[in-house]
Every structure is written in C-alpha cells, then in structure tokens.
Specification:
Elements (H helix, E strand, L loop, with lengths): L5 H10 L6 E4 L3 H8 L3 H5 L2 H15 L3 E5 L1 H4 L6 H4 L3 H17 L4 E7 L1 H8 L2 H17 L4 E5 L10 H13 L3 E5 L10 E2 L10 E4 L10 H12 L1
Parallel strand pairs: 1-7, 2-3, 3-4, 4-5, 6-7
Helix pairs in contact: 2-4, 4-7, 8-9, 9-10
C-alpha cells in the first residue's frame, strides 16, 4: 500500500477499491508561505509563489498531499458565480493546482478546503445562489486536477437545507474519481475526513487532516513526525 502513489490512493478511496488507504495531508498553507518567505497576501495572489511554496513544502515534509487553499482565504472574494473566475485568490489557487498537477503527476494528492453552501449562504445572504457558487467552485478546482474537495461549514450550519447541492457536488467529484468530504458539521450526504491533531499524531485511514491550518511558526519537524505517524 505504501508504494502506491498518493493520487492513485486518492482515486482508490474515492471509488472504494483495494481496501484501506491513507492520505496524510497537513493543512500547512500558511507554513508554505513562510518557507517561501512571502507575505500572505502576496502568496495567496501569485500562482507562481503559491505553487513554488507548496512544492518546497512537499520536499521538506514529504506528505501524501498538500492543501492548495483554505475557506477563509477565499471567502471574502465570493459574491457571485460571474466573479469567481476573476477573483485573484480563487484564480491563483486554481492555477497553482493546475501547475502542481502537471509537475507532480501522481506523486502528490491535491486537496482544496472550500466554503460549503451553508457557509457561502451565510456570507452572501443568498441561499439559492450559494448552491451554484459552491458547485462552480468545486467544478473549477476539479477541472484543474484536484483530488479531494473538502467543504468546510460552521459547526452550527443548517446543512440539511443544502442536501441537493451536496449530492450534485458528490456526483461531480465521482465523475473525476475525486474525494468529497464535509468538515465542521454532520451530513448524511458527505462523510467527514479524519482529523488528527498535530500534537497527538496517530495512525488513521482515508483522507487525514491536521486540526486546522497550521500557524506560520509551526516547527517543520513536528509536521514531518505527524505525517510519519499518520501513515504508519
């Protein structure tokens, strides 16, 4: 199992093939910015810096996958579907995903943590538009080569009101042989990823994330140890 490339493992998990696999993916987007020695705003709006920073993170930590964006990074730019393509942080993350897919092939799994439809609705005040925005976001990243879309909701989100768009997103991901998960609130449509704290690393199966985006001052050695423990 350990010799199976991470992207192949992601596809096996998504399609339910070949028993249990693990993808150890630290949420280390801001840590990658520190490695690249770039201010966060500049890092989030320059696809070259973002792709290079994540590449350096891969070389330093050797994870099974990297997180290409976080919901709080994108949320302020989400207003309507017509503006998604021109939003600097969204277009940067999509382009970096495309570049990493081309340069890394099957050797790394690419994961995006995106705001879920209930979170988008709370942000925009538009329940119906939120479903379309969430679906468009996921489809755009899948088209760039994403392996796993994790929709992130607030703990008290009314996820039950958004079952149909969640099913549509799950079907889109299935077509691309990609994973879809929901984090932060329970759902009968999408499973939650495994979450293992950085300071309590232990073996786990499936898509495994750290408990939150790691701070910029996180010790690289701790992340290396976390990946090793989760994958053992």
């Amino acid at each position: 199992m350990t010799g199976t490339p991470p992207r192949t493992r992601a596809q096996a998990i998504a399609t339910g093939r070949d028993g249990q696999h693990t993808l150890a993916v630290p949420r280390a987007l801001r840590l990658a910015a520190r490695i690249q020695e770039r201010p966060l705003d500049e890092f989030f709006t320059d696809p070259t810096q973002l792709a290079n920073g994540l590449t350096e993170l891969i070389e330093a930590v050797h994870p099974d996958g990297v997180v290409v964006t976080e919901p709080d990074v994108l949320e302020e730019e989400i207003t309507s579907t017509t503006e998604l393509a021109t939003s600097p942080r969204i277009s940067t993350a999509v382009e970096a995903t495309h570049r990493l897919r081309n340069t890394s092939g099957d050797t790394i799994a690419l994961v995006a943590l995106l705001p879920g439809p209930a979170r988008i609705a709370a942000h925009t005040g538009d329940q119906e538009g939120a479903a379309e925005i969430a679906q468009t976001l996921v489809q755009t990243f899948l088209g760039a080569g994403l392996d796993a879309a994790v929709l992130v909701e607030h703990r008290d989100a009314d996820v039950a009101a958004h079952q149909d768009p969640l099913r549509t997103i799950a079907n889109m991901a299935r077509f691309h042989r990609a994973l879809t998960h929901l984090l932060g609130a329970p759902s009968s449509v999408l499973p939650a990823p495994s979450v293992v704290p950085l300071d309590l690393p232990q073996p786990a199966a499936g898509l495994v994330l750290t408990d939150g985006d790691l701070p910029t001052d996180t010790d690289i050695t701790l992340v290396q140890d976390w990946v090793a423990a989760v994958s053992s």
